[in-house]
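Two folds, back to back.
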Amino acid sequence: MAKYITKRFVALVVILFFISLGTFFLVHILPGDPTVTILGPNDNAQNRAILLHQLGLNKPLWDQYLIWIGHVLSGDLGQSYVTHQAVTSVIAEAFPIDIELIIISQLIAFPVAIVLALFAARRPNKTFDKVATTTTFAGLALPPFIVAPLMVIAFSIHFHVFPGPASYVPISQNFWTNIDSMLLPSIVLAIGSIVIYYRLLRNDLIATLQEEFITMARSKGMTDRRVLLKHAFRPSSISLLASAGINIASLITGAFVVEFLLQLPGLGYELVNAINQRDYLVVQGIVLVVAVAVVVLNFIVDFFFSVVDPRIARD
């Protein structure tokens, strides 16, 4: 176990190093010049040269990277070229919105997927199972950038069930208004998770219900409901939990799309604004923090499952 964790940790450090390299150099090959945005009407060759020197952008890229990564390791992600706000402050204000969006979406996704899977697995290939499977296939085929506008038209404009885009209220101002403003984005984000969780749990439940210990439980006179909930659900939920960990990256990227479409001021919204404004340090900071978060969370998930199932570490 210790050897496995050590290997995974070394791999984590190497991956984080390459993420920092990729984040820095990819951002710097984007078209556009941040000095044009910063200088505005004062943009000329002389002022541009002075500003490049002040920002250190006239140095070789490798030197710029070493300076940047040194600051990053000390907790300084730089300052926005446009708003002059610290990048860490931008991320600190926006990141909680992403976390809340993901948490609420999963609180929606898990119960819906579990209930659907339990009913479908109880009588596979019957009417409910066929309808649920067909519906989830449709959900899988519809990405968030299609679902979000449709749900806004239906539930915000036509039926007035949810507030429309750009209606976010911080949780510190009003808890229930905040939840109300987060429900529509969370449902849009939850759809993809519902599809994944439902299909995994349904298939595992159907397979588990064919096992001998299930036949033994039924022979003792247990009802189908009791057998399903007490004996089949727990061993069938391993894949469900594993998929939740693996689903982290898609949840974050999905959250970015939802935030941009519904004008939710999270990291995705801030990232698009920073790209449009050539605000390179904000772009670098957000991309780096998100990439590191995904890698570290996947490491934690690997560690958790190596503890739950030691055979993973032996492999």
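---
second:
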Amino acid sequence: MKILVAGGAGYIGSHTVKELIKEGFEVVVFDNFSTGKKELLVGGELFVGDLIDKESIKKVFRSKNIEAVLHFASLIQVGESYKDPRKYYTHNLITSLNLLDVMLETGVKNFVFSSSAAVYGVPLQIPIPESHPLNPFNPYGQTKFFTEKILQDYEKAYGLKFISLRYFNAAGADLESCLGELHDPETHLIPNILLFLLGKKNNFEIFGTDFPTEDGTAVRDYIHVKDLAKAHVLALKKLLTSSQSEFINLGTNKGYSVLEIIKKTKEITGEKVLYREGPRRKGDVPVLLASREKAEQILGWKLYHSNIKTIIETAWNWHKKTAETL
């Protein structure tokens, strides 16, 4: 079976490509390398194309006999989405519509979508269940929310089957240090700490020390990228054997504050993390924690690598390895 992985040269996409190949799927990576990296390609067949170009999508579907799609290709920076919402609505919504339309034209009905905890907005309960009201308050979160609504309408009208996976905080790196985070710019906490320790960043700043949390810094649910990738493979297998569409959280039900992550990083690396304090970023909420029960029940998903020690160790090994070469 040939699986199209849109955005397969990105951080999560590349880890998922590796898992899919290991599970015996034939993978076609579709990427325009606007944010994806050729260094993160670990196998599969590459098709260079842009989701904004519907003809490019049609070409890959017709030539490669695609049977299911995993969609990772989107812009992800919340701060940037406030500054340039047009960019986000164009690149996250129109591109998804183009991809879905070509799927319908070619009779492909299985779709795994890379969604986000941002669809929930400010949590009304912790940990957040999938039944939580959806109230995104930044343009990035809105694009994920609207795409999920489109998927529901397409299922009713056209029989499209989907699983939308709502991520919390992806972190860590491949256990063999073949893959890891290569964002430019890097906005995630753990890689920013490690890049600072390696001399790749001149300073390290934390955003907000006045949150209503135990130590005043934001609390997040960190999930190892390999566990996240495995969830996508399980979601695909579920779609291929079931007619039920689903919305599923991917998180650990456990949170760490920014200061706790800094402390853990010092313990693991042996390096003192010097930081300066800055104001909260627009759109940041105090606590984001996922309920993972549905993922366990529906997908049979298990967490093997999402303890914070493994997350930081694998990320540290990756960044040390690539500090001088990438």
